[in-house]
Amino acid sequence: MSEFIREAVAILEELKTKTNVKLDNKIDNSLLYTDYNSNLNLKDPINWEIANKLLKDLLKYFNNLLYIIQSQSSSLLLRNWLNKFNDTVEYFIRLLHSIIEYHYREIINYNEIIHKLANEKIPSSELQALKILLRDHYILLVDTKSEIDQEVDKDDCDKDNFKEMISLAEKLPSIYLQLMENLKEEQDHESILALSTKLTDQWNEVVYLLDEAEDEEFDDAVREFKGTYNEIFKNNTLSLGIDFDKLSL
User: Fold this and answer.
1) Do residues 238 and 140 both lie within one domain?
2) What pLDDT score does 226 carry?
3) Which pLDDT does position 6 carry in this prediction?
4) Containing domain of residue 8, as a range?
5) Origin, by domain of life (predicted)?
6) In the listed set 86, 119, 152, which residue is the last one of a domain according to the structure?
7) Angstrom distance (rounded) from CA 225 to CA 207
8) I need a surface site. Which of 80, 112, 186, 240 has the fewest CB within 10 A?
9) Strand (E) or helix (H) holding 120
């Protein structure tokens, strides 16, 4: 995070001092830049007054978010807000580069991304923060299902654990949704996140090795994944209130 801030400050200084940029007045009328804190639509090149207003608004947002982060003791909320902060600063830096170089399409694109990030609701409880973090894991499972459907020859191997993983790939996203829907405030959210992270990391390894399903390395990856999967869904470690008999491997 500190590296992001240092780079942002350096670009701010460059933005304030760079005055020899040649303005291009031949801008396509369809390229409208909208300041996200007003209804101001511009067809002319970005000027320093507009840039300074945008930077002021963004820095105010960063200061508010940084204050929340610094005053928060919950590690789950802290992790969630730090992710949002880092994402916003990253696009902020890209936006500043685009302003300096007068890349109008990029200015519009990055401003819209920042606007979306700035208007997303910040979680106010650990349960909300956990669900947001687990949503990323769910998206990963959906993506790997699509990857398997498109790229893996499902008849390429007759091994039982290969077929079992191919079958599970179809069901795993919906199983994960059940997990997310059964989360409660009184549960150990840190343990749930740790196990979920471990599970998705191991699942990534299984999917990566599907093309080498005849190798012992694939067998080891499947065994490790099934151990974590059953710790969540079979042994009822997390007290999720799900019908585990139907989900265990």
Assistant:
1) yes
2) 92
3) 56
4) 2-119
5) Eukaryota
6) 119
7) 11
8) 186
9) none
